[in-house]
Specification:
The protein is mostly helical and 181 residues long. The chain has one domain. A 3-stranded antiparallel beta sheet has the order 1-2-3. A hairpin with a 4-residue loop joins strand 1 and strand 2. The longest helix has 28 residues. It is globular, with a radius of gyration of 20 Å.
């Protein structure tokens, strides 16, 4: 039975994307379709996550001594989990190419990709709010930039709302601890 389902996808090429976000399998993997203007935002979010995780690893390693290392394996588990998250984030980033003319599809774990989409949505919204609060919208170029930021926020909000609606069917083999399955 499983072979028949996978043969259909293999012989027909890539499955057509009808939605901007869809779950694959048991929703342990999500597929997001991004507009070209969203690529840089997601790359920035991934880079920020990797920097934060690397900083956390440095702090964990610096905080433990040889005596603590023997007694406490929880920091080892945290380091391992952070390294796994960095590897996954970089794999997602590897799918993104700036300068694409059309939509880009990105696949990622249903636990991590929605968090990245949340962060990118928040960043786009904050950029629009900053533009409005600085009152730099006057003039043709200011108005055009504000419209561009607003369109970017709208696109991110569409991905974010789909992400939230699909999060109820996420497969969590490790009971949500965030570690690798």
């Amino acid at each position: 039975m499983h072979q028949q389902r996978t043969d259909v996808l293999r012989t027909s090429g890539r499955a057509p994307t009808r939605h901007r976000v869809r779950g694959l399998g048991i929703c342990d993997v999500l597929e997001f379709e991004l507009d070209p203007a969203q690529i840089d935002g997601l790359i920035a979010e991934i880079d920020d996550l990797c920097v934060a995780l690397e900083q956390s690893i440095s702090e964990l390693v610096a905080a433990r001594s040889h005596e603590a290392l023997k007694a406490d394996r929880s920091s080892d588990e945290s380091v391992r989990r952070h390294l796994h998250q960095i590897a996954v984030a970089r794999a997602i980033r590897g799918q993104l190419v700036t300068g694409e003319l059309g939509p880009t599809t990105v696949l990622g774990p249903a636990r991590i990709l929605p968090e990245l989409i949340d962060g990118a949505t928040r960043s786009a919204t904050e950029a629009l709010a900053r533009k409005a609060s600085e009152r730099q919208i006057a003039g043709t170029s200011g108005t055009a930039r504000a419209a561009e930021l607003a369109a970017n926020v709208e696109a991110w909000m569409a991905r974010w709302s789909r992400s939230v609606s699909s999060s109820g069917s996420v497969f969590e083999p490790d009971d949500g601890t965030g570690g690798p399955a």
